[in-house]
Amino acid sequence: MQAQNNDIVLELRGISKTFGSIRANHDVNFDLRRGEILSLLGENGSGKTTLMNMVSGIYYPDAGQILVNGEEVSIASPHDAFKYKIGMIHQHFKLVDIFTAAENIVLGVESEEKFNMNEVNKRVLEISEKYGFHIDPTKKIYDMSVSEKQTVEIIKVLYRGADILILDEPTAVLTPQEVQKLFAVLRNMRNDGKSIIIITHKLHEVLALSDRVSVLRKGESIGTVNTKETSESKLTEMMVGKKVTLNIDRSDVTNAEERLAIQNLTAFNQEGVKVLDDINFTAFGGEILGIAGIAGSGQRELLEAIAGLQPISDGQIIFHRPKKNLPVTFFHKSLFEIKEMAKEGKFHDKEGKPVSFVGKTTSTIVKEVNDGNVIFNDDEIMNLRDKTPLQIRELGVRLSFVPEDRLGMGLVGNMNLTDNMMLRSYRKGKSVFVNRKNPENLATKVVHDLEVVTPSIKTPVRRLSGGNVQKVLVGREIASAPKVLMAAYPVRGLDINSSYLIYNLLNEQKKNGTAVIFVGEDLDVLLALCDRIVVMNSGCVSEIVDARSVTKEEVGFLMTKNTKEAE
Amino acid sequence: MENQNKKREPLLHITKRAVMPVWQQALIRAGAILSAMILCGVLAFILIPKLSANPSRIGEFYSCFFKGNFKTVEITWAFFKDVAVLLCISLAITPAFRMKFWNIGAEGQVLVGVLAAEGIAYLYGSRIQSNFVLLLLMLVAAIVSGALWGVIPAVFKAKWGTNETLFTLMMNYVATYLVIYCLSKWITSGSMVMPKLQVGVLPSFVNQYFSTILLVLTLTVVLYFYLNYSKHGYEISVVGESENTAKYIGIDVKKVIIRTMILSGALCGFAGFLIGAGVNNSVSDTSVGGRGFTAIMVSWLAKFSPLFMLLTSALIVFLDRGASEIASVFDVTGALTDIFVGLTLFFVIGCEFFINYRLHIRNIFKKEEKAA
Amino acid sequence: MNAWLNFFIDALAFGAVFIYGSTGEIITEKAGHLNLGIPGIMCMGGAGGCLFLQLFAKTLPSVLLVPFAIVASFLMAALMGLIYSFMTVTLRANQNVTGLAMTTFGSGLMMTIMSRLQATVYLNKPKKMFRFPFAARTDALQRIGVMFFLAIAVAVVASYLLYKTKLGLHLRAIGENPATADAVGINVTRYKYVATCIGSGIAGLGGFYYIIDYMGSQEAYKSIEAFGWLAIALVIFALWRPHMTILGSFVFGVLFCCSSSISVIASKISWFNVTMSTTPILKMLPYVVTIVVLVISSIRNKRENQPPAALGVSYFREDR
């Protein structure tokens, strides 16, 4: 349905916003008409949310003007935004858990009438019936599904009489059926004369729902087109731009060895939503395996599941420890284990003959092992499923993980560099006391090798800049010479030089035979750095592609195509 | 437009400070203590009749702080003894606080320690010949009961997330009435007062308090090393700073919570042993006398560092004893000490704000000029 | 009067001390502030009222004396609340430590003030006015005075305000999730200040009631601090609902009064064998019961019965 009226209700002129050295928006122009649904399209980090936060009063623009119904306004707080009948539904819901839907909705609303919860409940029902929501106003938020919570957020905005609604990635957390319901509601609202902006990067949704599309790339507006006159491929091109050539050395993969096999991995989050759905792939030593996908497609859960932090409901995580033709040691295996394995015929001696301990005394066996005469026939295979991080380490699996949340998970902000280096290694040795000598040397080495800018190794990492924090974290994780290295968004928020330093470090690990798993958001980087790319889409693996031959558009399409709908 | 812009920039704007040089921090804290002392003087004029009648005695008023603490050698030793006891309790709760486990139950944990130690001495003291064996038994009993008192809330916290602040607070009163109950059972005369015991007394060494002071100083050093250099201490810090990080590196958070509270409670029990065997040689429901609460402030003011606690506990005892001296010289109620300690604490707690935050005051006049 | 009835009325009258204290603490906790200064604040409420009586008992007519003294007690306690809010809201000081310092300071100041008042002036005559309308009785009913009924009214009104009005909704939202409240335009700072001051004022009345009405004795002030801690315990027992404090305080009252009139009760019940050691066990019970309630509510994990989610956490908008 075409908008019936072409009044412009919201106009942005030359909006710019910078955070520190990062330019989030630059000279953005944009307009919204009465009774239309407009998609704001762009990749992660293209500045969509920042732009809309300025309209809803979370941030204040550095430059530019905002016009509501043709008049210039200043929106300094969400309260101001409501005054101009603008309401935004954020990705992270702001709700009081122990309140009912209606209580959350009425919170902070100023009115002259006497407060009566029954009246509020009635009005909430009226609104939901008008637009076709289904909600029980007296239900508590903690009993609600994500989609119900979202409904509460939308009604919260409508209750305040908003005529302009901004939804930030509303479908990211919904099932396909819920998405269809939401779209129906949004169409009802449009027909009622509301203007709706939906922030998204899913092309099929844009095409299905919106009247016009405005595209942002790297913080700048690329253009606005009518949905009818465009196509998926045209929009993709506007969104990703021309291929950027990056100067990343990519060596060829040699002697790739199977290292980590993920089989049928399925997991649910705390709310009971399926976040990983039958994931299968294999990571090889000596290659960089990229993981591409829209934010929240299950990347974080996948890495945490491998690291032993996310409980899994189904599937296996098989680790191949490279032991073929290497002698067994008492460091990793007890005497009993070695005897058992010998019975199963898992060893050969230096001459290549099978090892048997039958009839040998313990001291002879010990001697043979110490002499290096007991040699593995094959790689060791172990299942990491349901192992805690500590158990994984105790098995001798050298698995390193650079998590997305650097200061909240990977490092302790208030501790200094040395103490942060110790996080992984402090248990070593039998002493009651920690050994700070080695971590200190490691900290000094990391600071020197990775050019970390810090007053000293005694400085709390909280006080370092983002790039330096990341160098400390990556430096620590590669220090243990990992067999598998997982890195989630390791260059997010980093400047060009630091980013290249990280790429080089990952490449070095690859050359050392490590299986590197790299979760990234910038497709140019993924294509230039990785050997293969696992493309994820709503908790599933869309496809595994060869990074050398695939195009950016193809990956973009795989990330966003709606697999579930097709079923 | 001008008007709208103004609204955007509030008159006062507060931001977090990166870090303040140590000398500035020290200066701010010293200033706070000084201001508090001056205000104490002002309050004293209102509250002490003999001072308001004769303002010239203000010099005498302040000199009481010195006299109450260091007038004679005995008084000086008593000062150190008081510091030692308070310090010991503060040290005991510090491991838990470093873990952000808000244990405000030290009062009760120490009290059951005193009760266990003195109970053993009272009931079995006459039957055990060796003073050493008796003291050892008392020590073990005190430590075990303190640990028990501490670990109960910790288990519930670890298992079900039961609010530890409220739980430990309640445990204090259970301990208080447990003491009264025991006294009513033990003291057959019905007076409910345990006489000063002659057995189970820490041996006098140099003087009667010296061994207590020495033990606490040793504990300070041991705890300093435990918290800063041991693997346990390191785990405590990581759990306190970020549970997420602790899980990420494979620390069993529940285990650390329970283990640390056992330690914390055991040390409280040890403090109870010192109060019992080293100082009071008796037990009553007021044996700890609120020091379990004061210790929280001592530990917090010292930023949970054992060495700084030497200073903060000395400061509190200094004020406390000084105010007691004033109360007796100027003939007013002993509650004066609480006023002075409380007031000083307000200033020292409040001054942290100026260390952690920066206050930006908008220049009003500049804006007005522009508008004009 | 029947000894049993006498006993229960006594328990009820005694419980009013906790109704004030706990209702006040609930209001502050609902704003996200665990105020461990309540014992000190109750002390100061008592001191404030008595100080007013000392100064004006001779000059003011009795019709004005009672309400004005109550207001004075409220204001003195609210002033303490103001100090607490300034420290914890504006200066963002640690709530536990500030609260403990408040208790130390408040009880000390109260002791000093009370030691200088004359019971003949502030207590003997005004006591009768406060015990209206039962001042002439000699049984427990004499303790049911003006402030007892005020306590019931305060608890009921506080419950109504907290759970039935928008004001209460906003306040509870702040205690649960200040960032959310801030985002919908609620003035978090103002609410926290007002709630803490009013809550402290109400708690202060508990101290005053105990001295002037329930006990009506010169030594009464010395035990207020201990009851302050019990009031904090009662908050958990009442699951953060002011009207529940009426029930809870009655239970606490029964247990406490049992210990004082134990011999009377013992003579009524044949199987009840009273010794010296029964009293402390009875006095311990309120705390044990509170622990049990706390543990059960955390195990059942019913969301409505938990402490406010943001209890004890300073709110700094720029942290988000």
Q: What is the makeup of the main sheet of chain A? A: 6 strands, mixed
Low-confidence stretches of chain A: 1-5
Major β-sheet profile of chain C:
none
Report the count of strand segments of chain A: 22
Q: Indicate the multimeric state.
A: heterotrimer
Could you explain the architecture of this structure?
- The complex is a heterotrimer of chains A (567), B (372) and C (320).
- Chain A is built from 20 helices and 22 strands.
- Chain A folds into four domains: 8-240, P-loop containing nucleotide triphosphate hydrolases (Rossmann fold); 257-318 and 392-398 and 482-567, 3-Layer(aba) Sandwich (Rossmann fold), CATH 3.40.50; 335-376, no CATH class; 407-480, no CATH class.
- In chain A, a hairpin with a 2-residue loop joins β4 (63-68) and β5 (71-73).
- In chain A, strands 6-7-8-3-9-10 form a six-stranded mixed β-sheet, sandwiched between helices.
- In chain A, α14 packs across α15, α14 runs parallel beside α16 and α15 crosses α16.
- Residues 1-5 of chain A have low confidence and may be disordered.
- With 372 residues, chain B is mostly helical.
- Chain B has a domain at 75-331: ABC transporter involved in vitamin B12 uptake, BtuC, CATH 1.10.3470.
- Chain B is 75% helix and 3% strand.
- Chain B is built from 16 helices and two strands.
- Chain B has a two-stranded antiparallel sheet.
- Chain B is globular, with a radius of gyration of 24 Å.
- Chain C has 320 residues and is an all-alpha fold.
- Chain C has a single domain (3-319), classed as Orthogonal Bundle (ABC transporter involved in vitamin B12 uptake, BtuC), CATH 1.10.3470.
- Chain C has helices at residues 3-30, 38-56, 62-90, 95-115, 119-130, 146-164, 166-176, 178-183, 188-215, 224-237, 242-260, 262-268, 278-300.
Helix/strand layout:
The complex is a heterotrimer of chains A (567), B (372) and C (320).
Chain A: E1 8-19, E2 22-33, E3 37-41, H1 48-55, E4 63-68, E5 71-73, H2 78-83, E6 86-89, H3 101-106, H4 117-131, H5 146-159, E7 164-168, H6 176-191, E8 195-200, H7 203-209, E9 212-217, E10 220-226, H8 232-240, E11 257-268, E12 274-285, E13 287-292, H9 299-307, E14 314-321, H10 335-343, E15 347-348, H11 362-370, E16 375-376, E17 380-383, H12 389-394, E18 399-402, H13 406-410, H14 417-425, H15 437-449, H16 466-479, E19 484-488, H17 496-511, E20 515-519, H18 523-529, E21 532-537, E22 540-546, H19 552-560, H20 563-566
Parallel strand pairs in A: 3-8, 3-9, 6-7, 7-8, 13-20, 13-21, 18-19, 19-20
Antiparallel strand pairs in A: 1-2, 1-4, 4-5, 9-10, 11-12, 11-14, 14-17, 15-16, 21-22
Helix pairs in contact in A: 8-19, 14-15, 14-16, 15-16, 16-17
Chain B: H1 2-8, E1 12-16, H2 22-47, H3 49-53, H4 58-70, H5 73-98, H6 106-124, H7 131-160, H8 164-186, H9 210-229, H10 231-241, H11 243-248, H12 253-280, H13 291-301, H14 306-329, H15 336-356, E2 357-361, H16 364-371
Antiparallel strand pairs in B: 1-2
Chain C: H1 3-30, H2 38-56, H3 62-90, H4 95-115, H5 119-130, H6 146-164, H7 166-176, H8 178-183, H9 188-215, H10 224-237, H11 242-260, H12 262-268, H13 278-300
Helix pairs in contact in C: 1-6, 1-9, 1-10, 1-11, 2-3, 2-4, 2-5, 2-9, 2-10, 3-4, 3-9, 6-7, 6-9, 6-11, 10-13, 11-13
